[in-house]
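A further point concerns the way the authors explain their paired sequence and structure data. The central task, working out the structure tokens from the amino acid sequence alone, is never made concrete. I therefore recommend that a typical entry be quoted early in the introduction. An entry of this sort, consisting of the sequence and the corresponding backbone structure tokens, reads as follows:
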Amino acid sequence: MSGENLSRDEARERAELLSVQGYEVVLDLRSAVDESEPAEGPRTFRSVTTIRFRSAVPGAATFADLIAPSVNAVTLNGTALDAAAVFDGSRIALTDLASENVLVVDANCAYSRTGEGMHRFVDPEDGEVYLYTQYEPADARRVYANFEQPDLKAPYRFEVTAPEGWQVWSNGVEESREGNTRRFAETAPISTYITCVVAGPYHYVTDTYTRGDLTIPLGAMCRKGLAKHFDADDVFLVTKQGFDFFHEHFDFPYPFGKYDQAFVPEYNLGAMENPGMVTFREEYIFRGKVTRASYERRANVILHEMAHMWFGDLVTMKWWDDLWLKESFADFMGTFSMVEATRFDNGWVTFANNRKAWAYRADQLPSTHPITADIRDLEDAKLNFDGITYAKGAAVLKQLVAYVGRDAFLEGARRYFKANAYGNTTLDDLLTVLAEVSGRDMAQWSRAWLQTAGVNALTPLVTYDAAGRITELAVLQEGDELRPHRVAIGLYRLQDSTLVRYARTEVDVAGARTVVAELAGAERPDLILVNDDDLTYCKIRFDEGSLATLRAHLGDLTDPLARAMCWSALWNLTRDALMPARDFLGLVLAHAGRETDVGVLQMLHAQAQSAVTHYGAPEWREQGGRVLAACALQELRLAEPGSEHQLTWARFFAAGATTEGDYQLLLGLLDGSARIDGLEVDQELRWDFLLPLSAHGAVDEGVLAAELTRDDTASGRRHQVRCLAARPSEAVKAQAWAVVVESDALSNALVEATISGMQQSSQRELLAPYAQRYFDAIERVWSERSIQIGMDVVRGLFPALQDTDATLALADAWLTEHADAAPALRRLVLEARDDLSRALRAQLCDAASRS
């Protein structure tokens, strides 16, 4: 991995030695538009950084962080150091420190094509160049010299010289301008990883948020080529609603002045919470028709990042062990605020069905970890931006709100902000304040929920009397760690062709068996739903009677959250090899057409496709795929013309197309010779249709070239690359492998597009030769490429479609023979190996169900 790692111990030692008074960062970005490529080495820009800091021990030694092709000069306290001697490519050695120090580093830093550091993007549509920075967890050192760890906060002043005609933004408001040089106001004390610069000929829209005496200038920007699609008014609407919510509940005014939001190209993340200068992936600007679920997802991300202004930016974890102190809270607050402050009041349904699925998967991997993780170094930190830190942490906070009460939780947050503003915290700081406001034993709660790994399963056990009334209802808890759960138990019965709740109670579940006395004597239910209303984090199981009811009447369940909970539970049964894949598919075929929540429907489509591709018996896959495609086409034709459900079924049908008739229909929809009433085949949907057609050889390179002529944009290029790599040819697969694994010429976005295009489930035989090649290559790739590209290759090219015991043996052999490989690399392989093992168990379950 390029760039040297930083360990927790090194960071702790440096934090004990140093305190930072401030940074002045001067960047010259005019080289970004040079038409000629450098004769050798990467394209660079000049970065001059002045750091003022104190040392607790005069005469001590430490180091500053910088990853750069070259350093022109290093000066410490007025003395010029030998740059070649003190700079090793990632660290600058500093010795004989004084009590008060001034370090000046003049470096040539490299523009990035991997989304790390200063990313440079050339828009193929108009040739314009766009820049933005992305640092988390430790890539600010690719742009300027610093002390790269979250607990060495400091104020920053940025000065940027840009090409003629460009705009430039940073965390602070622009304070002055002289020619093409902008100077930005000093920031409040913040960590290195949330500093930011965005520069280029962006399309920029402004607005203002006011609340009482508080005024916050708002801005939103995107590439000029996307301006016609940019619905900035809706972005501002959600932004203002979020500010209203957080100001009302946090009682701490937004502390960072302005609030710009940049939608940028080739972004690796969903978004990043840089204070005053939030960055988002530009795919949140919709080029075609999308469903309400897409707008809800964008609103959730906007509010997630806004919550970080308090949880993460104002108050920051000391080290990445406590990453959850920002990410879990932002994930929870994103949905909490969205449901209460915006039009997306069904957000907890999406959270229960979609977000928690990510958590359940992560928590059952061999790499599972407590929410408060053991982060030894930066590579560990990079991989811990995962389903546990985000979604499980958010689910546990939802449980905490039920445990201590909403008012106590929010009062705890308010006290936490006031006590720790502009500082760094650990778990104990939060637990102390929550214990004060709630009177609860937070240490015990923390041990159970934050400091242990794994997910519990809760199953109802019920007995009835002769009259059909409940004599006893108990909840059985399974798991390595039996935790306290605050849960609701719902009883449902069939009534006028609907499945409705007629009884509910909340109880504290603890230990292996908890009797729910409150429901004794209730009439016999058709469905018992443990964790009704999704109060806790657990997998739920069903008694046999409830499971039979769901098989016949899941679509009759009227409450959308209860329905989402049931779908989630059924999918977990399938993943755990407790329900055959074709049984899950049967439930989808029978009931998905009646699903009203389009986000849940989209999740069901993804799960049904996975059930066929990975969890079904191999001999059944082809039949299962045909049945699924036929169902999708039927529902597409039945859907209300022009509705979001019609669009969702159209995309699902295309993704699962399997027959010559399917391909002819897609071709007809593309050329206009076929028509489905109300379905508008816009440019994004055209690419959705072309991908399966490419994968099955129904269109050639000429058709894809013509489509790119029609959509010669950055998005069109990515789509074309994906389609080209999807073609069913040995030569195509060899080329895709070469450009991703053997070359670093592609940007991060095109690496991702090539990998996703190459890995087609219908092409198992074509991909078989790459199983061994994958294991032969990954250690070299990990050592030579950036961590982001390394992760993309190791995850994306794992031979999961070669789902045999032989592939499992290859993974095991690699792990045995590479015991000393980078821990982060081993973790990625372990996780992929576990997914493969799970798939094989599910396939055996599916095969056994029909034997």
Observations:
- Residues 823-848 form the longest helix (26 residues).
